[in-house]
Specification:
0% strand; mainly alpha; 140 residues; Com_YlbF; YlbF family regulator; Bact_com_dev_regulator; YheA-like fold; YheA/YmcA-like_dom_sf; single chain
Length: 140
């Protein structure tokens, strides 16, 4: 690729957008909640317990219903996952994560549509849909 002044200008503008994102309330909420969650001993304990049972789950999945502990491991995995997912700090983190992903999706859509309305944009959030085509591809 040959770098021209236009390309350098685009890269500078992208860096400006990046700095704006890193200074946004949305990103700061996400980052603060991530740190809070990582230092919360209760959350970390729930995560470790879930990951431990997940290892057993992966082993059971190799054999499917024929594994003698299939039902027990499946139920315990769901229970541990729910305990982790329903912790207030994890719930708050997921909400901030979704807000950040939505912001990023909106920015990507704006940039893509500035080029052409025919540009297809993959989005990280399947619920962020303002268009559907006949093939249900999720393009915008």
């Amino acid at each position: 690729m040959i770098y021209t002044e236009e390309i350098f200008s685009c890269l500078d503008n992208a860096e400006t957008i990046n700095k704006m994102l890193l200074n946004s309330v949305t990103y700061n909420n996400y980052k603060a909640q991530s740190v809070k969650m990582n230092f919360d001993t209760e959350v970390q304990q729930l995560k470790r317990e879930f990951l431990k049972i997940k290892e057993r789950y992966d082993e059971v999945q190799r054999f499917g219903r024929y594994h003698p502990d299939y039902t027990e491991v499946m139920m315990e995995t769901r229970r541990r996952k729910k305990l982790y997912d329903m912790h207030p700090d994890v719930v708050q983190f997921r909400q901030y994560e979704t807000q950040l992903q939505t912001l990023l999706d909106e920015i990507i859509t704006i940039v893509a549509h500035a080029i052409s309305n025919e540009v297809k944009v993959e989005r990280g959030n399947p619920f962020f849909v303002d268009h559907s085509c006949s093939s249900n591809c999720g393009c915008s």
